[in-house]
Amino acid sequence: xxxxxPQIGLTKFLFAAASLLFILGYSSVVYxxxxxxxxxxxxxxxxxxxxxTRIENAHANLAVLRGRDIVLLVDKSRSMAKIDxxxxxxxxxQPLITVGxxxxxxxxxxxxxxxxIGHLLQxxxxxxxxxxxxxxxxxxxxxxxxxxxxxxxxxxxDNKPAGGTDMTLAIRNQLEQYFExxxxxxxxxxxxxxxxxxxxxxxxPSALRSLISRATRRMNSSAEISITxxxxxxxxxxxxxxxxxxxxxxxxxxxxxxVTLNSFQELCSGGIAPxxxxxxxxxx
Length: 284
Fold this sequence. Notes:
Radius of gyration: 28 Å
Oligomer: single chain
CATH topology of the largest domain: Rossmann fold
Largest sheet: 6 strands, mixed
CATH class of the largest domain: Alpha Beta
Structural class: alpha/beta
């Protein structure tokens, strides 16, 4: 039997070692290239790509709003002039990218509503065949139907925050309009999503709780009416009100639980659209 010479064994070892060094060297080059690609300005591009994907998914989720009447009740009380909301960074090709609030990016609660509603109109274009209705409420209500982006700016420019917070009146009007349509159309009215954007608890919380409880007893399905409260600012009484409404549903004072709440932090992070999707999904 012939044995391999030590010289041949050494040659194979050196060849294997050289191959390993080559692979390691190539990996180092690739790794360096990746580091170059992830230079800060390219890291931002990657972050924007991730954000674009998130927004595309959010747009797909907005399809659950189709087939509903969408009403936005916007608080016009004097406290809405307070400046503590983050200014959104908007790219031309995407509806919304929100940045964290800094001293240079804060806007008033009133203008935040204008910007967010504008983004919502962009996001739901082609999804909602009927235009979104906007109601400004303080001590009285002002209704704006068939809102288009080009008229939205004038609504918030011509109206300034002033007065109290008669939230119960604004919600009562919408509930009565829904039940009137339901009666007139033989129970075939489109479901309605009532979105309340406010920074305060209503003037009479107990009256609002009673109003919503009575409305649920006139409903045949939890999908008929959804009410979502979008809280601007950090009023602890708003959280207490929401807890009370949830308790009403749990104790069967209300027939259905039709209420959801989004905190100020959630709104600053995601805007109005995810809140609407959450409200409708909770009712289904």
